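cache lookup: miss for this entity combination. No prior model stored, computing from scratch. Input as submitted by user K.M.:
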Amino acid sequence: MKKVLALVLAVIMVMSLAACGSKTDTPTEAPKTDDAPQTTEAVGSDAAPAGAIKVGAIGPLTGDYAIYGSAVANGIQIAIEEINAKGGLQFELLSEDDQGDPTMSVNAYNVEMEKGMQVLLGTTTSGACAAVADVANEERVFVLTPSASNPVVNEGKDNVYQVCFTDPNQGASSAQTIKSLGLGTKIAVIWNNAQDYSTSIYQSFMAKAQEIGLEVVSDTTFSDDGNADFSVQLQDAANAGADLVFLPIYYTPVVAIMQQADAAGYGFKFFGVDGMDGLLAVEGFNTALAEGSYMLTPFDANKTDDLTASFVASYEAKFGVTPNQFAADAYDAMYIFYAACQELGFTSETTPQEICEAMIPWMQSFTYTGLTGEGMVWTADGCVSKVATAYVIRDGAYASVD
Amino acid sequence: MTMFLSNLISGISLGSVYAIIALGYTMVYGIAKMLNFAHGDIIMVGAYICFTCLYSLGLSPAVGVLASVMVCTLLGILIERLAYKPLRQATSLAVLITAIGMSYFLQNLAQMIWGANPKSFQTVIPAGNLSIMGGELKISYVSMVTIAASVVVMVALSLFVGRTKMGRAMRCVSEDKGAAQLMGVNVNLTISVTFAIGSALAAIAGVLMCSAYPTLKPTTGAMPGIKAFTAAVFGGIGSIPGAMLGGILLGVIEILGRAYVSSELGDAFVFAVLILVLLIKPTGLLGKKIHEKV
């Protein structure tokens, strides 16, 4: 009897807590251990139309990188809803959680293949994507990753294409932009040495900086994307007399860096890359701290063109948050595949292998204009060519640098 | 020299956060003889409650801190009742695994309620800093409050355990649960109170930690929790002054290691300390060696 009472109380507690939550953008399961393959059916399971083409998404829906994986799954979800509403070709999203872990990611891939996945729009993170891409390459399944930007993802694999910029491309453009706009003379770099994304941008930035004569006076790292203490890194930058801090990292640590730099009274200018997109939407963040910071990004949620405005509006209505660049890349990825289905006549009966062999030559001849760029084209090694636009943050919004 | 002092202050400030968390760890371990790995996640819940009060409900910081202390206290008692009490007679391994499960449960519950998007915690302490030595050395108010709070908490906790009736009951339970029960000590109540105090401390730690390092997400408590556990072992698990000393030393070692040896190896220093302590002085700096009588 007592046990029953305890159980009932526990259920009531969970329900009431869940009820006071204002925003729930990622449905998850209750507790779980690390060892079991994740089979979280996150989104898209509701009312799949009959004869739908099955599209796979894999990314971290829980854990440290949950925000990125859920943004990707949500972006694809929005695109699929729009496309399905048009009538004609119908799509169904299979979404699995991998917590950004390569082993779990391959498990998730196998689960989705068993469910009849025909193409993979993933995975979200580079490390996991490289592992999945190896398997997909052998099995001849086409992979179009919205966000895995490391070159290791598609090196030597003809079936893996990226929607996002590659990391080296960003590092070099950042150095070039800092130099040509004259943003700083003494540069400090703070990067995350536990992350492929950050490391790869850092390396190409340093190479380019040396080539064009940009002076890097302080070079420090961290390895925890969470609640890190940045006093040492900021102190090092200040002692070296840096005037600009280059941050080739995701926006979560950027929040901490800006706040700690402000609390300690350092007056640095900051320069970020596309991972910094999303900074201004962080709840509770004092956007005045980011005022005058620069960043490179392919996506700006404040742009007023019809495509961006309608995407942002439906994303906000459905998920309660402003979409970031990951969601936008994912949305583009889904529309690229939709265009392929229309032109190449894929149906729910087409095998993944047939799709893969048809997609590879088609991608190289295809030009796409979407949320994250105009006239995007792909090389045979799967890299996209699109322009990285530099923005400056003014009055809490992105503004053109000119 | 100023740079060294400045790093030292950062280290002590970070160490004070570890110390407050470690105090909760060490108390629960000392009295209930279990490692509550969910402690770090109670910190995270405390910070979220405070964030919700300040940001979503627009309440004052004092109310936010109070609310988070109250919610965490209740949560601590509830967790103990539902998850740990039924395992009072089970092996310590079963309890340990339950605690790890509870840690994941809290993380996922927080993600369900507040979402995976990181929040930027609004500090409950006025931003700004005290400039000394002609402006060369800056100490932020948050650091000063954190250091002061950890000292106050440690002294209060020592007095409570050493001087009050409940404190005496705690020491009895810690020494021998069975004998304490025979002497008329209410063991279940004592353990509940221990969890209540430990969780209230976790709430304070959460608010202070997020005031200094403002990113808040469901996994925020995980790493500091593990480091504070290291601090508790370093100082001698079960010892209240030991947790304080271990926490502060660990913070200083981490910051100085990052500043003067390698910024890539900050976390490695912390865990290297754990290994060294376990090899050289397994009872920790201030831990007592207990002779097992056969």
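stored under new cache key. The beta strands of chain B are 119-120, 129-132, 137-140, 215-216.
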